[in-house]
Amino acid sequence: MKKLGFYPGCSLKGSSSEYAQSVLAVAKAFDIELEEINDWNCCGATAAHNMNKELALSLSARILALAEKQGMEEIVVPCAACYNRLTVTQHELNKDEALKQRVCDIIEMPISGSLQVLNVMQLIDKYVADRLEEKVTTPFGNKVACYYGCLLVRPHNILKFDRLEDPQSMDILMKRSGANPIEWGFKTECCGAGFSVSRTDVVAKLSGNIVKDAADRGAEAIIVACPMCQSNLDMRRPAINEYLKQKIDIPVLYITQAIGLAVGLNPKEVGLQKHFVPVEIN
Questions:
Q1: What is 2-120's CATH topology?
Q2: Residue 52 CA neighbour count, 13 Å, CB half
Q3: Could you tell me which of 129, 128, 120 has the C-alpha nearest to residue 229?
Q4: What is the domain partition of the chain in residue ranges?
Q5: Half-sphere exposure of 21 toward its Cβ, with a 13 Å CA cutoff?
Q6: Are 205 and 128 in contact (CB under 8 A)?
Q7: Which residues on neighbouring strands pair with residue 116, listed in sequence order?
Q8: Fold match between 2-120 and 138-264?
Q9: Which CATH number fits domain 138-264: 3.40.190.10, 3.40.50.11810, 3.20.20.70, 3.30.565.40?
Q10: Is the pTM of the predicted complex or chain greater than 0.70?
Q11: What residues have CB less than 8 Å from 97, skipping those under 6 apart?
Q12: Angle 79-81-264 from CA coordinates, rounded to 5°
């Protein structure tokens, strides 16, 4: 069994617990053990880096240092915002030794900067993709809109993951799960992100445009890999429907939920009962 580190972040322990549930379930189905980082803290997403750069870097650096202290070489970070903060932090520290030393003094721990940080797509691509098709028992035979959001492939010069404007990694994985990904124009548009509480009207407009385009193009589900995106597209559906002046019932699934269903996990095992928009996938 392959053993990897696991940083759930705040969302996966609370509002997006179904994401954590599905990640762990899919990992287990493919003989991957995810070991949670001991005593982890919030990474600072989404706004800490706008307030104090060094303290914001220190939040993520402490997580990286704790993982290194635990002997981890690779960690899985399912949340796109957390993944962005951890990878950007490691990049910033590795290019500036003086900054790294100041941050190490703040967190009172050394950090080598050699940790491999994987998002969910990278995890699946590296350890699951080659075995995915052979393990599919119930193909996810639906038209899907793969939604990457703002952070999963940005900033591109640091993450160097997938194509910037027309990413394909999620589409490829969904094809291997038996789905039919559509071509659409909102793959990397912003859903409203952290405005979900302070400016729900902004989220309703931005997320509404995403949901409508997916529905207009015949998608039967939207597939995501970010708890904030899922929350805005799913939990804010009443505000979205009010903005659109129509009711759209298209569900929003995490990619791990879709893959889990395809390889034979049942809906409860991947947390589908926790969604606001009911998931009725044939």
A1: Glutathione S-transferase Yfyf (Class Pi); Chain A, domain 2 (1.20.1050)
A2: 7
A3: 120
A4: 2-120, 138-264
A5: 20
A6: no
A7: 74
A8: no
A9: 3.40.50.11810
A10: yes
A11: none
A12: 20
What region does 245 belong to: left with phi over 0, alpha with psi -120 to 50, or beta? left
Q: Which pLDDT does position 3 carry in this prediction?
A: 97
Alpha-carbon gap, residue 33 to 180, rounded angstroms: 30
Could you tell me the pLDDT band of residue 282, with boundaries at 50, 70 and 90? low
CA dist 226 and 230 (Å) reads 6
In the predicted structure, residue 180 carries a pLDDT above the cut 90? yes
Q: Which tokens belong to 157?
A: 């010069």
Please determine, for residue 46, whether its predicted confidence score (pLDDT) is greater than 70.
Answer: no
> What are the structure tokens assigned to 66, written together?
């704790």
CA within 13 Å, CB half, 202: 10
- B/e letters for 98-136, b = 16+ CB within 10 Å, e = fewer, are ebbeebbeebeeebebebebbbbbbbbbebbbeebeeeb
